[in-house]
Each structure stands twice: as structure tokens, then as C-alpha cells.
Design brief:
The chain is about 80% helix and about 0% strand. It is mainly alpha-helical and about 300 residues long. α1 packs across α3 and α4 runs antiparallel to α11. It is globular and about 50 Å long. About 45% of the residues are buried.
Length: about 300
Amino acid sequence: MTNDRFGAREDAEGTRAGIGIMLVVTFVFSVMDTITKMAAQIYPAPQILWIRYMVFASVTVANGLHKRGRYLFVTRAPVLQISRGLLLAGEILVFIVALRHLPLADVQAIAAAGPLITTALSVPLLREQVGIRRWSAIGVGAIGVMIIIRPGFAAFDPMHLVPLFGIALYAVYQVLTRRAARYDDASTTILYTGVTGLFAMTCVGPFFWVTPDWFGLLMMVGIGVLGLTGHGLLIKALSLAPASVLQPLNYLMLPWAVLWGYLIYDHLPDLATVIGAAIVVASGIYTFHRERVVRQVG
């Protein structure tokens, strides 16, 4: 009995630590997005992403060499790993463009639909079972996205479709990442994420190069460091607490985006965006809850 209590206490402490780290993760990523928006006003998106991948890939390759040596690039699913790496690079590129043209809060409000799209895509791509309750939540979330985008109304801005396309790419990337976990360990997947993205942006980045000043270079390197830090902390948080507990905390990116948008750009989201975002977030949280219930029952 004592051991059971100790184990339960240890799990609870790990979960609390994971939640604490996840709160830091949302702050780090919100700062990264804010700096990305600032840099995107001056420099082309491919250049920003190229430098970001230079930072990311250099660390992942060094870490991979230390752990795996000459077996660094051994994978049981090379096409899958390369495909998901290219998808992520495309998704980040799309979001940099979106951040350049749209307020931070608008981008994050649309991005909140990501988990709903991922759940929907897991049915055809992973053969997962999704019940009527989660499908209903996905449908309600879609209504929330439509309220934010407002197609057919005078306030409709076609640029709102850009982050929607980006989150669709990210949803496919997440589904493929789940599939990759069946073949390779996390270190291999992270390595291919960095190297594939670096290779892709090295093919594109030089054509968009604008020589930065010191502040511009500092911003772009900072974006890379913040991204690497955020992902590292996220991995640590997931090692301490269940994903079903941590994933809803991603929605804290939205209030952070509102805060930075107001402090730096004096922008506050309009009522339609707030209502739509609330619907999307509520649908996403309910979806996470149902996934957790299904796993416990199963």
C-alpha cells in the first residue's frame, strides 16, 4: 500500500511538473511568434525559416552524432520521415506569411482548430475510431472557424485562409508523426525533422536572401533558439505528464497572442473573432476530454 501511495504521489508530482513546464512552453512559443511577426515585416519568410532550421538542425545533428554515431540517419521509414519533415517546413513557412499580414490573435484563433483537424484526419490516415461526440465537436469547431473567417461577408479577408491552410498542413504532419512512431524512436524523428527542413530551405532560402543588419540577424537566430528551446521543453513536459493533460494548455497561446498583439501593435481581436475562438477552443477541449475517456475505457 505504501508503494502504491508513493507511486501515485510521484505520478502527481510529475504531472504538476509537466504542467508547469508546459506553461513555460506556451510563453516561449508566443514570444517566438511575436518576434517572427516583427522579422517578417522586414525579411522574406524563406530566409527567416532557413536561419531557424540552421539552428535547429545543427543541434539535432550534434545530439544525434553523440547518441548514434554512424547510425545517425538509419530509419525504417525514410519516405515517411522525409515527407513529414517537408510538411512541417511548409507549414511553418505558411504561418510566417500569415503572421506578416494578420494580427497575432487572429492567427492563433484559427490555429486553435488544429487538434480538431488532426482528429478528423486520423480516421482515414490512421484508421482510428472517432465517435459521434467527437465528430460533433469537430463540426461545432468548424462553425467557430467560419465565424472567425466570415466567408461571404464584407469583413472577409482572404488572408485568413492562409493560416487555415497552414494548420491543415500541420494536422497532416501530426498524423504522419504518429505513424512514424510505429517505425522509429523519437530521436530519429526529431533528427529527420531538422535535417529535411534545412535541406528544403537551403534549396529555397538563397533566392530570397536579404542581408540583415545585426538586429535582424539577432532576431532570426533568436527565433531559432526559441523554437529549439520550446520543442525541447515540450518533449520534457510530455515525458512527465500525459499528452491528454498537456495538449489543452496549448490554447494558452491565444491569450498570449492577444497580450503581445495589444502591447506591441495596439490590436485587440473583434467580437466575431473572440466568439469564434471561444467555440473552437471549447470544441478542442471537449475533443481532448473524449479522447482521454475513450483511452481509459479501452
